[in-house]
Amino acid sequence: MSLQMVSTVSNSSLLQPGFSLLNFDGHVFLFGQKGWPKRSCPTGVFLLDIKQNELKMKPAFFSKDSCYLPPLRYPALCTLRSDAKADEYQYIIHGGKTPNNDLSDKIYFMSLVSKTSKKMTFQCTEKDLGGDVPEARYGHTINVVHSRGKSMSVLFGGRSYTPLAQRTTEKWNSVVDCLPSVFLIDFEFGCCTSYILPELQDGLSFHVSIARDDTIYILGGHSLQNNTRSPNLYKLKIDLPLGSPAVTCTILPGGISVSSAIVTQVSDTEFVLVGGYHSDNQKRLVCNTIVLEDSKIEIVESVSPEWTSDIKHCRMWFGCDMGKGSVLLGIPGANKQLIPDANYFYILRCKGAEEDKEEESIIQNCSQTSSEDPGDSTPFEDSEEFCFSAEANSFDVDDADTYNEDDEEDESETGYWITCCASCNIDINTWVPFYSTELNKPAMILCSSGTGHWVHAQCMDLSETMLLRLSEANVKYFCNEHIDLNKGLQTPQKVACLKKQPMKPLRKKKTMKLSMSTKKSFLRRLFE
């Protein structure tokens, strides 16, 4: 094994633990960026291009008939082929966390539809399922098995939020282990069936799963309920006859108690297990070789690389499989660095010395792409799920297409976790719901002072009744800091004058006009 340091790159703040790598035709793409996509790359999918140890991120494109794909962290991801030896494939993406920490229960299919020297276009579609549909979750795995000429996907593990009926104010945002059910998904007919196996007693998340033909091996994983890392090695065998599928589970000896480990494939039957954690604060610096042959699995300890002092002494690390026996590892940078969210990156090559030299030559001469996995001081369970993919040679594209985060607006002052006032005490790590309408974000209200700014309702000491009244009424609100200023600048309210009703004109008495003959006749009668 060899360990090589990668020079610091720009825009690395978009890369975080929980992202995924997609490999299409030898090109590696980043999915699951930090935050919501911006104008420079509305798809949130980037080509990762490494040239002379310098990483460049270049926006990818979606076809017009694609559905919206949010950036999801910690999803379950795998490739789907028509059969085990087919060349064409697409990616299945299930679950994961959005930038707002909402959990997704959707399943997406992502495939490459067109490719040019400067542009690669993807198609993303959402798949509807019926039957026992898995709940929204993250930190789980999905694999594809092949049996008797059929293919099905198998989903297992993960975490989800506490059910609504069990939530309290103190535990509103807490997560729990998903039930240890095995889901068999038939995408051809869009149906899903869950299986409860007696061998699987505890829910697991951030475990390792390796699929080969009709068998899946599950290794390690963390259980929140018991706060343990399972030492068991589970073997799931899926038989797909003409009738109903048969799912069996066997507990094998020789498991490893580890969570958040990374697996990379070095040959058709050989894999290497790297990284992970023994406990909350103890990294696992030992590497293992996993060999799958003739429906058997063998796990042996392999020679570990010479870890640097920075890796040995850091509290956390994270990484992702780059394919072809290479893993990219990241550790948090020193606080004295001028670049915020800076991290150090290393490429670990798990093949022999001659193969390592050949791959290194390819990187220097052919501008091989890889992926980075920086993070923002997240806890141990935020390590990345692995995927098996071929290592890629990057294609030449103009530097004008390179994503530049400096071109975007500064959004550091927006969102729910801002400091809205001098006495603001809302912190993303300690916040718990205060109002009954809150779920996983604090309630906010717009102050109409000047151009307007958002403040937390809790920091403004608003009661729930007043908050609901303000949200329903069409009135302007001023925060505690600007309410007095607003009163001082406010002019007295004009009092509407009473409208005087116009007087009705006096009616003129009607007079009769008499003719001269009539007048003479009247006078005669009067004097007679």
Automatic annotation (TrEMBL):
Cellular location(s): Nucleus
Start and end residues of each Recombination activating protein 2 PHD domain: 415-492
Biological process per Gene Ontology, one example term: chromatin organization
Cellular component terms (Gene Ontology): DNA recombinase complex; nucleus
One GO MF term: sequence-specific DNA binding
One Pfam short name: RAG2
InterPro entries the record matches: Gal_Oxase/kelch_b-propeller, Kelch-typ_b-propeller, RAG2, RAG2_PHD, Znf_FYVE_PHD
Assigned protein family: Belongs to the RAG2 family.
Protein name: V(D)J recombination-activating protein 2
